[in-house]
Amino acid sequence: MRRVQCLLMMAGMALPALHAQNDWPAWGRDGGNQRFSPLKQISTSNVSKLVPAWQYSMKKEGQPFRASQSTPLMVNGVMFLSFPHYRVVALEPESGKVLWEYTARGDYDSPEHRQHSGPLGSMRGLAYWAGDKQTSPQIVFGTEEGELISLNSKTGKPNPGFANEGIVNLKTPDVMRGFNNMHYGISSGVSIYKNLVFTGVHNADETGSKGPAGDVRAWDLRNGKLVWTFHTIPHPGEVGNDTWPGDSWKNVSGANVWGFMTVDEKRGILYMPLGSAQNDYYGTDRPGPNLFANSIVAVDAMTGKLKWYFQAIHHDIWDYDMPIPPILFDVVKNGRTIPAVGVMTKYPVLFIFDRVTGKPVYDIEERPVPKGDFPGEWYSPTQPFPVKPPPFGRISFKYPDDIAKVTPQHEAACRELLEKEEGGRNLGPFTPLSEKGALMFPNTAGGAEFTGGTFDPTLGYYIINTTDSGRMGIIQRGGVDQSTLPSYRRGRFTGPPESPIQHIFPAGPPVAVDGWPCWQPPWSRLTAINVNTGDIAWQIPFGTVEGLPAGMNTGAPNSQRGGPTTTAGGLLFIGAATDRMFRAYETKTGKELWKVKTDDLIQGNPITYMGKDGKQYIAVATGTTLLTFKLP
Predict the structure, then answer these.
(1) Is 75 part of any domain?
(2) Does residue 110 surpass a pLDDT of 70?
(3) Total domains in the fold of the chain
(4) Which terminal Cβ of the chain has fewer Cβ within 10 Å, N or C?
C-alpha cells in the first residue's frame, strides 16, 4: 500500500513538469524569454510533412482590418489569445472552439487612439498567473486606455477582488503629472513574478519632451494595490540624476518599457529594457547621457531596488530605444558557467552581461562616433560597442562603395537618387541628423524590433532576425514648406507646435528604388550567435524578393517584425519576412526545411504546444487569422 501511495505521489509531482513541457504559459514561454520548447515530436526529419490543423478568425463584423502582432498562450489545456480591439478569447487548442470571450472597454477607433497606439492597440500579448489560496488563476493584460485588467482564466470574467471590479486605473496623478490630455497606455504584455505584475507604459511620441512619466510599477495581483515604483528618469538623490544637468530631468517623458520585460524567477531579478527619452530625434533641452534612457536596468523584483544598469546608447537622438526583450541564458566560458542576460537596442549588436552582477561577459568599448553641428544639440562623443559578438547587420554606408549592384538599372537609379544627397552623408555608426540630411543606419524601425529573438540552450545559440534598414533624416529649425521638397524627403514626423525645431522623415520607403534598397544586400538576415564564444555561428539572408536575377538571394527588406521560436526537435520557426512565408529552419545550420505562404504578413511570434490528442501543434497569428499546423 505504501509503495502505491509513493508511486501516486511521484506521479502527482510529475504532473506540473508535464504541463510545463506541453504548455506555453508566458509570452517568452518562461520568464527568461528564451522562446524555446522542449517538445520534439515535430523534428528536422518530419517537419516537411506539416499540414494545417485549424484556424481562428480574429476579424469581427463591422470593425476595420487591424493586423495582429499577438502571441498566444497555452496553459493547462486551454489557449488564450489577445488581438486588436481589446479582445481576449479562450480556445480549445485542438480545434479552435471558443470557450469564452472578453472585450475590454476602449475608444479604439478615436483619432487620438489611432495616432498614438497605431493599428494594434495593446494586444501583443497576455500574462498568466497561477493564483494562490485566495485568488483563482488569472489572465492579466493592459490596454492603451491605461487600464490593467485581471480575468478569471476559467470564465473570462473580471476578478472582483482586483482593484475596481478587476481593473486598475494606471493613470494615477504621480505618473500623469498634470498632462492628463496626453496618451498613456500599455502596448505589450505585462510580466509576472510571484504575486506581482509589472507594468511599463506606451506614452506618446513626438509631443514635446514633457509629459507623463515612463516609470515602471509593480502591483499586487491579489488586490490591485501599488507595491513599488521605479523612476526611469532619476529624481534628485537617486542614481543617475546627475546625467540630467540642472532641472532638465523634470517632467521628461519617455525612458519607458513599451516592449516586454524579463524575470529571473530563481533569483527574483526583474530586467527592464528602457526606451528613448523624449523627444526621440533631438535633445537640445536634455543635455547629457540621460539615464536611464536606452538602458537595461536590473532591480529586485519584490522591492524595485536598483541592482545594476547599463546604458547602451548615450543621449539617444535616433529613436533606437531598447525594445528587444532581454533573454536569460547560461554562458560557458573558460570552463565556468555564467548566468547571463542578452540585451539589444534596435541597433544590430548584442551585449551579454552576467545577469547577477551586470559585469560584461565580453568586453565593451566606448568608441568615438560622429559629432553633429545642429545648434544647441548635445552630442555624446562615444557610444558603447561590444568587442564580441560583432555587429550582425549594416551600421554604416560608404558611397559609392556600398551602393547596391543587384541589376544595372537598379544601380543606376540608386546612384541618381543618392547623388542628389551627396552620397547620403553617412559618416559611420551613429551618424546624427543634420539640416542638409543624413542617411541613418539602421532607421527608426531597426535593425531589430520588439518581437526579439530566441535561445536554444542545447546549442548555446542566440538567434534573431534583423533588417539592414536606412533612411534619410533631416532636422531643421522653423516651418518647412514640404511642397518644395522631393517626395522622398517629405515628412511624417514633425516637432511639437511650441518647438522651434521641425524635423522631417520621408513618408515613403527608405532610400530605395521600386522597393529595393540602395545598399548592397542582404537586406534582411537571420543570425545565430554562439554565446559561449561570442562568434556568429551562421548567418543567412532572410526572406525572398521577386524579380531578382537567377540565383541571387538578397533577403526581403523590412523583415524584422515578427520573431523566432526554437524547439528541442532541432527546429526554428519564424514568419516576419515580407514575402509572407512561414518557415522552419534547422537550428544548428540555418538550413530551410519547410515553408508555407500565408495570406497576410506574420508580425507575431509562433508558439508550440502538445494537445490532448497527443499531437504537437505550431500556432502563429497572421493578419486577422490564427493559424495552426501539425503532422498528419
Answers:
(1) no
(2) no
(3) 1
(4) N
